[in-house]
Amino acid sequence: MPPELVLTPREMRQADAWTIESGLPGIELMRRAGHAVARAAAEMLTKEARVIVAAGPGQNGGDGFVVATRLAGMGHRVSLGLLGEVGRLAGDAALAAKDWKGAVEPVESLPFAEADLIVDALFGTGLARDLGGAARVAVERMNASGIPVLAVDLPSGLDGETGRVRGLAVKARRTVTFAARKPCHVLMPGRAFCGEVEVADIGIPRVTLEATGGRLFANAPPLWLDRLPKPGLDFHKYDRGHTLVVSGGATRTGAARLAARAALRIGSGLVTVASPPEALGVNAAHLTAIMLRGCDGPEGLHQILQDARLNALVLGPALGAHSGTRAMVAVAAHARRSLVLDADALTSFEGLATELHQVFRHAPAVLTPHDGEFRRLFKGHPDILDPESKIERAHRAAAYTGAVVVLKGPDTVIAAPDGRAAINENGTPYLGTAGSGDTLCGIVAGLMAQGLPAFEAACAGVWIHAEAGASFGPGLIAEDLAELIPGVLRTLLR
Ligand SMILES: NC(=O)C1=CN([C@@H]2O[C@H](COP(=O)(O)OP(=O)(O)OC[C@H]3O[C@@H](n4cnc5c(N)ncnc54)[C@H](O)[C@@H]3O)[C@@H](O)[C@H]2O)[C@@H](O)CC1
Ligand SMILES: [K+]
């Protein structure tokens, strides 16, 4: 199965246009789209149910006319209300409206609360500004009715590209979109408005979708499963990489051990904790399969990295946000090992992101900030912080630093400097627990130690981490996560 593509509204419009140019008329695309929605509606309805279609002034409204015509033909009692005037409908929407033999009411007079199902065809990917006036009132009334809503393409009021709510948005039970999901179906808060999302095939070939988009994916196993390491019979532990995790001081050692254990569980052949001299005792008391070495500051790290077998490195958790940590990042970047930077390794560069400009372009590196760390790191870089799209922010940070950027959250975005990006959606709020991020670092580094490229390691790591958390649910603590990895791997590698 190929990885699932996600297309921006602009890419989707291009794919529509190319498909139409290649000989499939736009009205045919619209009919297929409307019929797919009508099929979904029929599944939600009993015979002769009452359906209210709210149609907007653009092509999303056109889809609404097709749905209304189809459902009426199936014997349902259908009312259609239009935002605007029929005479002002253009293009395929005007053609679709001609097929509708029922009345066209003003959207203002639709009795939503009397319906068994509401079909929301007000706006799709063409929403251009915040909802106001009659559009806003219609959405307010739809939401207040408590009647299930089936959204055409996307719930009206969502920005297709960013998943942002433009003033107000329809809360849908189910959404039928066409050819591919758009970012609003995957990113928060949009995802929470869509209900169950179905992608209907309306005849736009995958090659066309790949040609216009092709760089944004839903993060799931098809994106990286074939890269996941499976040790061969003749494999030696030294073939599976050696991950080094740098520990904080005597009272701040737990984060490194969490990362180290996760690296070991994900399959890194060897894992070593590099510990400041004063913390060797406490680390030694808690480590068994994981090795331990003394490491005194940046110079100590430099010495340790003379050993070329140490091929992946975690730096950041509990190191302290100070110049010593920055110096360690410099040593690590110079040593050109696969690198995962988190927490203090990022925060120590608060307002100093220029020092990281293109620093990571020579070796695989992954930065794993949450929103707060991201804002601190790129303070003074409005070009990176200001885009409304989370995908765009992550992209720009990746292009700037030369590293893969994992911008964490309920909709973690993983962006590579080469322009690829993936959105993750299998997480659980229970992952928001102390030490969860340290575990993620260890998983990603452990995958890189085994030879996965940075983008695939980050995508696989984020997904496996989330899957492990979701499989446990309530009561999850970070210590559980590494122990849940084997179960996730077993299912993946079956
Ligand atoms: N041939 C195609 O391109 C296809 C398009 N399809 C449908 O077409 C939709 C996109 O159509 P459009 O580009 O016409 O966009 P929309 O139908 O989403 O909306 C655009 C219309 O809404 C108006 N508008 C935008 N923001 C507004 C606001 N805040 N308040 C009031 N009016 C506002 C615009 O002036 C324009 O008339 C897709 O979402 C999909 O449902 C499908 O039929 C599949 C094929
Ligand atoms: K809609």
Automatic annotation (TrEMBL):
Keywords: ATP-binding, Isomerase, Lyase, Metal-binding, Multifunctional enzyme, NAD, NADP, Nucleotide-binding, Potassium. AMP binds at K408, G409, P410, D411, T412, G437. K(+) binds at N60, D120, S156. GO terms for molecular function: ADP-dependent NAD(P)H-hydrate dehydratase activity; ATP binding; metal ion binding; NAD(P)HX epimerase activity. This is Bifunctional NAD(P)H-hydrate repair enzyme. Binds 1 potassium ion per subunit. InterPro entries: CARKD, Nnr, Ribokinase-like, YjeF_N_dom, YjeF_N_dom_sf. CDD domains: YXKO-related (cd01171). Its EC number is 4.2.1.136, 5.1.99.6. One of its GO terms (biological process) is metabolite repair. (6S)-NADPHX binds at residues 59-63, 124-130, 153, 255, 370, 438. It holds the Pfam family YjeF_N.
